């Protein structure tokens, strides 16, 4: 006689699988946004490190301040991503420029894999859309299912770029000299209030200064010191 599952046993298995899914799927979802936030926070601090160890002051270039190290978020290519770069003298166009040899790349190398660069998606200015040098984890949409990134606070400027000076202080502004919003002086764009980077795996709701539910995470950058941390959910002041 062949053994087989009874209908009752089959229903029991389905119920157990449903319970396990209800327990673990939200955790997996939560882990993704936490992993994304931890990575972004690490790269914000790395951008500060580059800025503090690589002074861009140049007496022969009256626009030297446009070359400050920056972390720039983008929604290009139908995904949210970011890159870390410092623009070359005389090439202040806001783009992550790199030629085919990468000898003059404006994008920072990935310190964990020196063959890669800290840019998440292809860009026509980065070796004509080459993909073999990208750091895939910086593609937040593909890697972590991030659907929205908001950069707010700091000052009245719009945009998704955060720059740092030799003291690690944050700035907000454009480094593209062809735009009206381009920074005009070494002090132009200096943050006068905290900056907030909010990432969401669903529609962002409520205040940009706090994570209002498990689908959101907020990183706060202090304007006076540059100290950055992930905020606790439903708080605009308390760090994890």
Which key terms come to mind for this protein?
240 residues; alpha+beta; 4-stranded antiparallel sheet; 2 helices; 10 strands; 18% strand
Report what the structure shows.
- The chain is α+β, with helices and mostly antiparallel strands and 240 residues long.
- Helix content is 22%, strand content 18%.
- The protein is globular.
Blueprint of the fold:
Elements: H1 7-53, E1 70-74, E2 81-85, E3 109-110, E4 113-117, H2 140-144, E5 148-153, E6 161-164, E7 170-171, E8 195-200, E9 216-221, E10 228-230
Antiparallel strand pairs: 1-2, 1-6, 3-4, 5-8, 6-7, 8-9, 9-10
> In terms of quaternary structure, what is this?
single chain
| SS elements, strand count | 10
Number of helices: 2
> Between the first and last Cα atoms, what is the distance in angstroms?
60 Å
Give a concise summary.
The protein has 240 residues and is α+β, with helices and mostly antiparallel strands. 22% of the residues lie in helices and 18% in strands.
């Amino acid at each position: 006689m062949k053994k087989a599952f009874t209908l009752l046993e089959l229903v029991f298995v389905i119920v157990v699988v449903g319970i396990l899914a209800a327990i673990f799927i939200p955790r997996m979802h939560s882990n993704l946004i936490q992993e994304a936030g931890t990575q972004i926070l690490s790269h914000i601090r790395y951008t500060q490190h580059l800025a503090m160890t690589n002074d861009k002051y140049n007496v022969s270039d009256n626009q030297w301040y446009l070359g400050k190290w920056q972390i720039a978020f983008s929604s290009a290519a139908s995904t949210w991503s970011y890159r870390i770069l410092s623009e070359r003298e005389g090439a202040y166009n806001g783009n992550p420029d790199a030629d085919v040899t990468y000898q003059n790349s404006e994008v920072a190398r990935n310190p964990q894999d020196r063959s890669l660069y800290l840019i998440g998606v292809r860009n026509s200015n980065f070796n004509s859309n080459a993909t073999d040098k990208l750091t895939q984890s910086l593609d937040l949409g593909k890697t972590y299912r991030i659907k929205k990134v908001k950069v707010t606070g700091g000052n009245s400027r719009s945009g998704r770029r955060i720059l740092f000076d030799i003291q690690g202080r944050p700035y907000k502004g454009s480094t593209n000299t062809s735009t009206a919003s381009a920074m005009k002086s070494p002090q132009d764009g200096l943050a006068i209030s905290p900056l907030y980077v909010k990432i969401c795996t669903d529609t962002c709701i409520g205040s940009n200064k706090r994570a209002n539910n498990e689908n959101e995470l907020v990183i706060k950058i202090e304007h006076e010191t540059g100290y950055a941390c992930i905020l606790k959910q439903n708080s605009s002041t308390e760090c994890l």
